[in-house]
Structure formats: C-alpha cells, structure tokens
Design goal:
Layout lengths: L10 E2 L29 E6 L28 E6 L5 E6 L7 E6 L6 E6 L8 E4 L7 H8 L2 E10 L4 E4 L2 E4 L2 E9 L8 E8 L14 E4 L11 E3 L5 E9 L2 E5 L10 E8 L4 E8 L6 E11 L1
Parallel strand pairs: 11-19
Antiparallel strand pairs: 1-10, 2-5, 3-4, 3-6, 4-5, 6-8, 7-13, 8-9, 8-10, 11-16, 12-15, 12-17, 13-14, 17-18, 18-19
Length: 298
C-alpha cells in the first residue's frame, strides 16, 4: 500500500476572537467573580483566521486533491469549558473561506475551551462516528474531518470576551483508494466498499472494523486522540454512483508499531465483487493515498 502524506491537515495559525455585539463601551477587566454577572452567558463572536480551513486536503507528491477552502453558513463548532463544565455551539454566519461564528459562552480570563468540529455532544468525553460515509471528498471534509483545538480566554468584560487558539489537530486519517482488477489490469468502478481487519495477530478482529471512536478532551492538545471502539461488522462505504476513486475517513493506527496493520477490502461494482488485502500504517491527521490496489474477482 503506497502512502503519501500531507502536512498534517492541521489548522495552523488559528486565532479566535470572541466579541459580543454591543454599542456601549466595555471595561477592560472582568467584574468581581462574586457578582451576579460572573456566571452570565454572553453572546460572543468567534473569528477563525488561517491559511487553510478544515475543508482543504492537499497531499504532497504527484497527486493533488483540493477542495475549496470554505465554510458554509450554518456550520457549527462545539465548545466545552474545562473550568466550569459548560458547553454550547458556535455557528458560522456566512459562506466564505473565513467566517464569523456566533454563540453564547460563560467564561473568565484564563479559562480553557475545547473546540470541536464537526459539532458533537461533549461532556468529559465525546464520540465520533465513521459510519454513513459516501466515498466523496466533499462529504469527508464536511462531516468526517474531525478536528480538536484548545482556546484560551484572554479577557472578559460584562458583555464581551476574547480568546486565542493557535491551531487545531485532525483526529482521523483521510484515505484515498482506487482498485484494479488483478486479472485484467483495469480500474474497478466502486459502488460499494467494505473495509475490515485481516487477522494477523495485530489485535484486529477478523472481518470487523471500528464504526466509532471516543475522544477525551484535554488542555494538552497533543495528548488528545481518537480511541477506536471495537466493531462487530466491516466499515461500509456506499456510493450514490460508481466511482474510480473513493475517499474514506479511518481511525489511525500506531505508526510506531513494527508491523503495519493488515486490512481486507471488498469492492462491489454493481454486478461483480472483488476482494484483496493490504498492509498500512494510518498516521493521525495525515492523508494516505492508496491507489491501484489489485483485487481478485470473486
């Protein structure tokens, strides 16, 4: 399995600016923590500034896949305040490469906020899902490019707040697959793809693949990872129409392991089925290109 990776599709240079819409002047410091205003939610505006948004996938190497770097009005982020256990959502107000997000948050200076996209329910843990993928780059970027970041609240007044977040990290591995009929050396159009583990002593259960993973928020962003929940079936990717190239979000494997993990692929083209195996490491936050995998017709 040939692996090509990109500069971890991370949100570099991410900055959050939270500001309430208010026509009045605000004091530079937050009021007395014992006052009634201390726990008052504020309507805030979040601005994300970066060179590449969560929708951009750009591998290094000969192949190039690029989705326009754009948010869509209505896109939601979820936040979790580590210091007062409050949570909520922030919503994009425009469709653009950079968009303001608005929402409500209660915070003090120095509070840390876990920020997540796509929006999910967060408490002290949260769950992400890999099921329901349709094999397109657009769907992978908008619904399965799970990212995590930590924002620090810098200042708060009665009506406004500001925070900064230098970067976010991708929690899954984005994969691009294509397949070849081993007997005829011709590309296989994919209408349905099943991915499962091949038993080889690596801990995977033959014929299954995780459908979900859990994430535990932490103020140390580097320590946050997607932890696979053992599945009971293969990962199924169903396409609306047959395609030669299929994009799939997968749970990372341990790139430090001595032996790559073994996978089994089963492809249906609408009439025939094909199967084969391959080995690979799936690094967290990277884009793996595995094209021209040779399969046997069943």
């Amino acid at each position: 399995m040939k692996l090509l990776t990109i500069s971890k599709y991370i949100f570099c240079g991410l900055a959050l600016s939270l500001a309430a819409c208010s026509g009045s002047e605000s004091k530079p410091d937050f009021p007395d923590p014992d006052s009634e205003l201390a726990d008052t939610p504020r309507t805030l505006q979040l601005t994300i500034t970066q060179t590449e948004t969560r929708a951009t996938l750009t591998p290094s190497g000969d192949e190039l896949d690029e989705l326009a770097a754009s948010w869509t009005a209505g896109d939601q982020l979820t936040y979790w305040n580590f210091d007062n256990s409050t949570t909520g959502s922030l919503t994009a107000t425009t469709s653009a490469s950079t968009s303001p997000f608005t929402g409500s948050v209660t915070c003090y200076p120095g509070h840390k906020l876990a920020v997540v996209y796509p929006a999910v329910d967060i408490t002290d843990t949260y769950t992400i899902t890999l099921s329901g993928q349709d094999g397109t780059l657009e769907t992978l970027a908008s619904k399965y490019h799970f990212v995590y970041g930590v924002a620090t609240v810098n200042s708060v007044t009665e009506t406004t707040a500001s925070a900064s977040m230098p970067k976010m990290k991708s929690l899954l591995t984005a994969c691009k697959f294509s397949f070849i009929d081993k007997a005829t050396s011709t590309p296989i159009p994919v209408k349905k793809l099943e991915i499962s583990f091949k038993a080889d002593g690596d801990g995977g259960i033959e014929g299954t693949y995780p459908q979900t993973a859990t994430v535990t928020p932490n103020k140390d962003q580097s320590s946050v990872h997607a932890v696979a929940v053992a599945g009971s079936t293969s990962l199924l990717v169903e396409l609306d129409e047959a395609r030669i190239e299929v994009y799939v979000a997968m749970v990372p494997t341990n790139p430090e392991a001595e032996t790559p993990r073994s996978f089994r692929f089963t492809v249906f083209d609408g009439t025939n089925s094909y199967t084969g195996t391959a080995k690979a490491h799936l690094p967290e936050g990277e884009y793996v290109v595995a094209t021209g995998l040779r399969l046997n017709k069943q």
